[in-house]
Predict the structure.
Amino acid sequence: MIMIDEQLLQPTYRRRCGGAAPRQRSAMCSMGVEPRAVPALRAFTRDVATRWGAPEETIDALRVIATELVTNSVLHSGSSEVSLLLTVDGSTASVEVRDAGTWRERCPGTGVPDQMVDGRGLGLVHAYATTCRVQRDSQGTAVRAELLIPLPAQRGHPRDLPGRRSPAGW
């Protein structure tokens, strides 16, 4: 398992805006694609976000997003390694999961939603994230989900956060 944690300060912001520089932080963990990668990368996400002082509801949302994206990689990528990049930049947090596999679209119309036992992962990601992008190229697949970090006055249940959508049918 490889882990990297970086913290960058942007000194030019302080000079131009007269205030404290916004903090940009990133941390990455890579490991083999195997079932234990899911709880390991979920714990990595929790530990890093906690160390950075993220609000509890943001930590919960990041953990759900990380769990779903890593699970998709483990179950569907065919890759030997999965990487998770956690980033905070100002009021935005992001989770990016990358693997060397190929994204496969789900066949439309397969399964009855109430009878399905899987296939809801990206729906959960979209419910917590303000944006979610899938990038496929010759190197593999990267899925990046971003969410807003609520200001102290906005903190509450994750379903009440700005930009959060409710999953269809839930």
Q: What stands out?
A: The chain has one domain: 2-7+23-102+120-154. The longest strand covers residues 23-32. Helices lie at 11-17, 37-51, 56-76, 121-128. The beta strands are 2-9, 23-32, 81-89, 92-99, 131-137, 140-148.
